[in-house]
Amino acid sequence: CMYFSLAVVRNLSLILFSLNIFISLFTELQEIVFVIQSQSNSFHSKRAEDLERNILKQAEELGKELPRVLLIHQMDRHDGAWTILPLMQDFSASYGRNSSWIFFCEEDTRIQIVKLLETLRRFDNYLPLHDIALYIWQKGNGPHLTPVPEFCTDDLNSYKAVHCATMFSNFLPVCGDPVKKEDIFVAVKTCRKFHRDRIPIVKQTWEGEATLVEYYSDYAETSIPTIDLGVPNTERGHCGKTFAILERFLNHSSSKTPWLVIVDDDTLISIFRLRKLLSCYDPNEPVFLGERYGYGLGTGGYSYITGGGGMVFSREAIQKLLASKCHCYSNDAPDDMVLGMCFSGLGIPITHCPLFHQARPMDYPKDYLAHQIPISFHKHWNVDPVKVYFTWLAPKMEDSFTEKKQRRIREDL
To answer: Which family does it belong to (predicted)?
Structure first.
């Protein structure tokens, strides 16, 4: 006969239990469709492909059939796919009968497959995929959001990582030496009535970070100085002024300047951080970068870069835009939306970066901003814009910008 010590029996029990989990993982893994919300720009597509390889590598190490991994930018064109709902009809037809879960993630998401499967096992997946869009809408009476603590926003190095199925950090990417100051031309849109209120704020805050800055107005004032583009001021839209800036950049600035940034006179921006970010982008590509919004998505609409947070153009993108003859339908048309419509018509996708912000820091949840090193904010209303700049954007904070200090400072705002 054969005898086992108590310790050996315990070890065998653990091994058998682990094997049972292992076997169940194989089945469940095939029932997940991973959807990476990728972008076609070369920097972002590479990051998404790296994540795809990581998911498949983890799955391969489990020894069974690989799951489906979809990259949105490789799919047939879906305007507004980043909002998820426009994809549901196609996903229903393609995966409704043989998949239990659709897992959407960002290119920055890091996934621990085994932990993810353990987490999903706690939930019923009884709802057929083809009913999910209707189920979500239901005039506001759809499902409540379910908090899942294993879906973490902590960094990979966090002590919490061992308990996380997913981790996510949206810190500032750096791909090499920062872009040179003289490689970025900054255009500030203003008008006469704001020369005394807003321009001094720009000069107290971020103007010193930039080498090439011009202020475009409806009135030439040498003390600032401002440049009158010959476009009358409008109470809204400013499309005529923006297109005049694009034409001036292309025809009058140095051809060696690869980047144009257009901001409002109440935009607060870190040129220091923008220079780092732009190290990841190729100015020889048509790049149109900023915070993405959408209009009429799923019904023939388009995405656009919201102007308040700042719009970044490569020279190549401006050349293609102006060569297309796409233009404003009126001087007071919404410039950011017209630009989105034009680039959509050209088949040039915009590039989203969540580090640009259309609103003030107080307009965002603290936890959302706690995982960012922001590049811009917008609006002076009901805030001290100088304090906002030096709290959130000033370059002198970079060397000591730890997460604990970041949170402590921001909670005081």
So the answer is: Belongs to the glycosyltransferase 31 family.
